[in-house]
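note to self — DONT lose this again. spent like an hour looking for the file last time. sequence + predicted structure for the chain T wanted, 212 res
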Amino acid sequence: MTSTTTIEQPRTGGETTRTLLLLAGWFFFAVWLGATGRLLTQGAPPFAIAAAIVLPLVLFVVDRRLGSPLFAGFTRLELPTLIRLQTFRIIGVVFLVAWAGGTLPGGFALPAGIGDIAVGLAAPFVAAAVTGRRPHHLTLARLWNILGTVDLVTAVTLGVLHGRSPIGLLAGAVPTDAVARYPMSVIPTFFVPLALMLHISVFRTLATSRRD
């Protein structure tokens, strides 16, 4: 009788380290953009913030199609971890604080802040449901992921519409200029794309789980 033994190569932390270093560099770059005023448009369309949100996402999608040489660290994460990481979304409380202080309009700060807090607070419970394989846990994860993605898209849209620019159709006495200034600028330029990457990763993992 012939037996075949498959020897698995030990996984190294190289992929995760590479991803973490890339995220760290991107974070410091986002800080630099806000601290140096590169995101301030002075009445022009917010092209700088738009680029800071879209370009990392484009790089992420292209990287996945090329086998994830840069963002392979995301592929190492299991579904509960991808969901649990979104707990950082409670950072949306800063929008509510800014609204209470009169530096952000309620039309943007309230839905963006409350939505982020809700998604962040729900993340550990959804992750626990997936870990425990509770009834309809994948449906719950999918619904939470959709709502979390919609929350981000809605927040970005409202931020633009309440801004002091030609497309700021909802802008009033208090615009969303504070979002383009450091330290709040780090939210749209770093945390929003990061959250969207996590959502994309969850969608892909859920699609794989459904096929299995």
